[in-house]
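Internal tracking record. Fields below are filled automatically when a chain is submitted to the structure queue. Please do not edit lines marked as system-generated. If the sequence contains nonstandard residues, flag them in the REMARKS field before resubmitting.
Queue: standard
Priority: normal
Entity type: single polypeptide chain
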Amino acid sequence: MLAKKIALAFGIAVIFPWLVHYGVSTFWPQPKWEDYMVQGNYDPAAPRLEREQRQAEQRKLQESKKAADKVFAVHLFAIAAPLGLAAILCGAFLRVQSVGTGLMFGGIFSVCDGYVNYWRELPDALRFVSLLAAFIVLVWLGYKKLEKNPTA
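SYSTEM-GENERATED OUTPUT FOLLOWS
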């Protein structure tokens, strides 16, 4: 029975962040690399002007992809981090231990997914404040909800 509980918790922990990530991707599609590439074969024997035009076009597409990646990362962070924290809180209060554990791990992974994709763009002050909030939630849950009360 313990193995089934572990499997259930693991499944929830893995599926939840994917669910959040691809839910965001459904409404704000993640840019695809191939959509930002100059089509056609590169010809090193082409005239210099033609090669320079191709390179300029490729740089312009790369900048467009960078901007599109940033927009996706903002949306993912704005949704994954709060949903992840909500999953952590919900998981801590559920009576079914395997589901609660899975939600807590899934929430942690979801928060991490949001941070990983947006970390470069996130200002240091917002990094600190948001990580502090997540840390406080985890420590508070550890003391108030998960620790056994010795007087009870």
